[in-house]
Design a protein that fits this description.
Layout (H helix, E strand, L loop, with lengths): L10 E4 L7 H7 L4 E5 L4 H4 L2 H11 L3 E5 L8 H14 L3 E6 L1 H13 L7 H4 L10 E6 L11 E6 L4 E6 L1 H4 L3 E4 L9 H19 L7 H23 L4 H15 L12 H13 L3 H19 L2 H11 L7 H18 L16 H12 L11 H10 L2
Helix pairs in contact: 1-3, 4-5, 8-9, 8-10, 8-12, 9-10, 9-13, 11-12, 11-15, 12-14, 12-16, 13-14, 15-16
The structure holds 5,6-dihydroxy-NADP and zinc ion (ZN).
5,6-dihydroxy-NADP binds next to helix 2, helix 5, strand 6, helix 8 and helix 12.
């Protein structure tokens, strides 16, 4: 196991009606004026936005708001939000929504006290030294942004979808998680979220670091819980127990718990971000396409951990042929994704003729010559994985 520091100071407030505590919590964390950030309108239709505003009013916290954040959020909304926050003298960002809304709020939080262009942070040209506080009301378990210190934004002009990791500045001070808020999700979005949280665990699970039994078992346990609860939620989307388990799994998958002390991979996410940047597909759907292709490649090049995953998560019988075991695991994973209504190829994702050379060029321009850690991928190997996903 490698040396590590783990510091995850977010206060999670989980359960029914918890959104009514938003105002009191905002006050507890010193907010005088918050900016509510939301997406395309699901929080208006569900009545959640009104309940959040009521809670803020009752606690005497004033607010302004910015809606209209789109999935795969873009830089334009960040600039708009920075302006608004400065004008309104906001001291806390309050995203009410999913990863796209939370990530926009985090980028705004970093951008407000910074004199330069917020995109500098994403290009590695500047470090986030100061940021406004961010607090979350989560409506979709998926990206894990409610417990992570990361934000992912697309710059429209260059179609670069890049992440920024600043856990000591951008981790939310509190996150409100009411599983009932997820009942209104279209099933496809629920399934995309499930694929994303599974991917967050798998990016950490597939490692060459030895002596990581504790995090291996946490990963395997969380994955098997997600799979079990996914079947339940497919049967009954209003099953509170299933929704609650899935929601907490999404946080555990990405708040760092499953990755401590081990080298992580993240090649599949990088491969996917290129796809959602160019073709604007749901991130989780893109991962359902990319991850099985990445694992198929790894079955031939470094099958050990993929075979372990096949056995412990999917019940594939143990044998001496790790590659065969690994491929059987990939097949079960794909079967599960299909059952959830997810695509497992570019074609099923609605992209008949992806411009693979463009994806590969952009990928390695953004991420460097070699990608990932489990097996480091050159341009040729990234291309091979995209081709396996056709
Ligand atoms: O915009 P509205 O109208 O709210 O609709 C949203 C959106 O269309 C809808 N939705 C959300 N909650 C709902 C709901 N509809 C009905 N009822 C509800 N309760 O769902 C759609 C998708 O929302 P979005 O926020 O885009 O989903 P998600 O949470 O999957 O976030 C995806 C983004 O997060 C990034 C992804 O790349 C993508 O841009 N990621 C962020 C990470 C992080 N910050 O740590 C890590 C991830 O790996 C990921 O890259
Ligand atoms: Zn993800």
């Amino acid at each position: 196991m490698n040396n590590f520091t783990f510091y995850s100071p977010t206060e999670f407030v989980f359960g029914k009606d918890t959104e009514m505590q938003t105002g009191a919590l905002a006050r507890k964390y010193g907010a005088r004026k918050v900016m509510i950030v939301y997406g395309g309108g699901s929080v208006i239709r569900s009545g959640l936005l009104d309940r959040v505003k009521q809670s803020l009013q009752e606690a005497g916290v004033s607010y302004c708001e910015m809606g209209g954040v789109q999935p795969n959020p873009i830089d334009g909304k960040v600039y708009e939000g920075i302006e608004l926050c400065r004008r309104e003298q906001v001291d806390m960002l309050l995203p009410v929504g999913g990863g796209s809304v939370i990530d926009t709020a985090k980028a705004i939080a970093a951008g407000v006290p910074y004199e330069g262009d917020f995109w500098d942070f994403f290009m590695g040209r500047a470090k986030v030294e100061k940021a406004l506080k961010v607090a979350v009301v989560l409506t979709i378990p998926a990206a894990g942004s409610e417990g992570s210190g990361n934000t992912v934004i697309t710059k429209v002009e260059t179609l670069q979808k890049l992440g920024l990791c600043a856990p000591d500045r951008l981790r939310p001070v509190f996150s409100i998680m009411n599983p009932e808020l997820t009942y209104t999700l279209p099933f496809y979005q629920t399934a995309c979220g499930i694929a994303d949280m599974m991917a967050h665990i798998m990016e950490r699970y597939f490692t060459n670091t030895s002596d990581v039994e504790i995090s291996d078992r946490l990963c395997e346990g969380t994955l098997t819980a997600i799979i079990k609860e996914a079947y339940r939620v497919k049967q009954n989307p209003n099953d509170y127990g299933a929704r609650a388990n899935i929601m907490w799994c999404g946080t555990v998958a990405h708040n760092g718990t499953c990755g401590v002390g081990r080298e992580e991979d993240w090649a599949s996410h990088a491969l996917e971000h290129e796809i959602s940047a160019v073709y604007n597909v749901a991130h989780g759907a893109g991962l359902a396409v990319v991850f099985p292709a990445w694992m198929t490649f790894m079955a031939a090049h470094n099958p050990k951990k993929i075979a372990q995953f096949a056995h412990r998560v999917w019940g594939v019988p143990e044998s001496n042929d790790w590659e065969e075991m690994a491929l059987a695991g990939v097949s079960r994973l794909k079967h599960f994704f299909r059952y959830m209504g997810l695509p497992v190829s570019f074609k099923e994702l609605g992209i008949d003729n992806p411009d693979i050379d463009r994806l590969v060029d952009s990928l390695h321009r953004n991420k460097g010559e070699l990608l990932g850690n489990y097996v480091k991928l050159s341009k040729e190997e990234s291309k091979e994985i995209y081709c396996l996903a056709l």
